[in-house]
Amino acid sequence: MIDNIFSLKNKTIVITGGAGHLGKAMSEALAAFGANLFIVGYDEDKNKKYAMNLKDKYKLDVCIGGNIDLKDEDSIKIQLANIIDKTGKIDILINNAAFSCAGKVENMTNDDWCKGIDGTINGVFRVTKYTLQQMIKQQYGNIINIASMYGMVAPDSRIYGNSGFNNPANYGAGKAAIIQFTKYLATTYGNKNIRANSISPGPFPSCEVQKNKEFIKNLSSKNPLGRIGRPEDLQGIIVLLASDASSYLTGQNIAVDGGWTAW
């Protein structure tokens, strides 16, 4: 029915990094639309606390926080197996968690480069691999990967000035790989009723970064909408892609960036 096309009731959703800067807003939107939600990531205590808050606020039957270490396959397998034991399925996987390693190309060590790649595409691959095994058994599933505008375009070094901030090459390379990986999943597993799409957030600086007012001014002035992103700007798109409202949408990368990549 059209009146509940965005409902997530009875859908089991796993979101990595779901208690982080952007993850919190996405998790809340999923909870508000009734999902059975598993918030997983490196900080187990934070995940459990946030999951409990959402469970109480939205009167959910299932909203659980847990641990997943993107670097550790055993951690991933154990947590996903626990989720499947509890619910019998995984309807939707949202690969949001990531980590990087800053540095300029000319000074970056091989280990630093590899750490950034590991924290983006490799982590997404590991979690997707084991979730996909369950989705193939189910003969349905929905994978949403969080990429970045810097997987689509290069950073504009002019906006950083003397801020001390920079966006490292391994981050953008890893996020670009996520976009391609998403398209691969969509075309390879569509015949098993498995969808895959990615979201590329634009400028969503952390609260700490926002303390640098000059940098935020530069960031905002480059954007057609003239402002930085707010975490809640991602709530609509995550509900759309998770719900049956997007049932014929797969293989797409959607930029939520205030127009950044339109220049």
Brief overview, please?
The protein has a single domain, classed as NAD(P)-binding Rossmann-like Domain (Rossmann fold, 3-Layer(aba) Sandwich), CATH 3.40.50. The chain has 7 helices and 7 strands; from the N terminus they run βαβαβαβαβαβααβ.
Would you kindly provide a written description of the structure presented here, covering whatever features stand out?
The protein is α/β, with parallel strands linked by helices. The protein has one domain: Rossmann fold, CATH 3.40.50. It is built from 7 helices and 7 strands, in the order E-H-E-H-E-H-E-H-E-H-E-H-H-E. It has helices at 23-32, 44-58, 73-87, 110-138, 169-189, 213-221, 235-242, and strands at residues 12-16, 36-41, 63-67, 92-95, 141-146, 194-201, 253-256. A 7-stranded parallel beta sheet has the order 3-2-1-4-5-6-7, sandwiched between helices. Strand 1 (12-16), helix 1 (23-32) and strand 2 (36-41) form a beta-alpha-beta unit. Helix 1 (23-32) packs parallel to helix 2. The longest helix is centred in the middle third of the chain and has 29 residues, at 110-138. The radius of gyration is 18 Å and the shape is globular. The mean pLDDT is 96. Belongs to the short-chain dehydrogenases/reductases (SDR) family. Pfam families: adh_short_C2. One of its GO terms (molecular function) is oxidoreductase activity, acting on the CH-OH group of donors, NAD or NADP as acceptor. One of its GO terms (biological process) is bile acid metabolic process. It comes from Selenobaculum gibii.
